[in-house]
Amino acid sequence: MLRTRRPRIPDRPDELNRIQDAGGRVIYWDGPRVLGVLAMSRAIGDNYLKPYVIPDPEVTVTERTEQDMCLILASDGLWDVVSNETACTVARKCLRSQKPPSPPGSADLSVGEASDKACSDASTLLTKLALARHSTDNISVVVVDLRR
After folding, report:
1. Mind telling me which InterPro entries this protein's record contains (predicted)?
2. Mind listing the pLDDT tens digit for each residue in 91-123?
């Protein structure tokens, strides 16, 4: 498991400096918020908070290994209530419950469909787990099978 997530919160030192350099402020109202409104410093939308909240992503390049099984892309609605370890365990169990993937370029569609279903099942289970743990944020989860 490799965690690449760094929270895009307004009081992270580099984000705080960027917001202040743009003329904005971080106000603590139930946690740090840009202008006292938004609890994240990067977002798509929220145009009324430009130029303080920007849509520019942070990009990380990571070398993959043959042991890499899956990639979990999720919003903080999941990560605020589910640990990385738990999310990885759920995804691995769903992926291992399907038959092994065929090599890239293979014509075996049933294996690809099984992998798609396993990824969908993992995403659904993780979403339900976040809801069961009373996540109060929106929840988006995508699981990608890296073995295909």
Report:
1. PP2C (IPR015655), PPM-type-like_dom_sf (IPR036457), PPM-type_phosphatase-like_dom (IPR001932)
2. 999 999 876 555 556 555 576 788 899 999 999
Bridge partners for 141 per DSSP? 74
> Could you tell me which of 38, 16, 35, 15 has the C-alpha nearest to residue 27?
35
Residue 92, Cβ density class (10 Å: 0-12 exposed, 13-18 middle, ≥19 buried): middle
Which stretch of DSSP H or E encloses residue 33? Answer: strand 32-34
What is the domain partition of the chain in residue ranges? 1-62, 70-145
Q: Is the peptide bond prior to 103 cis by the omega test (within 30 degrees of 0)?
A: no
Q: pTM of this prediction?
A: 0.76
Euclidean distance between CA atoms 87 and 3, whole angstroms:
11
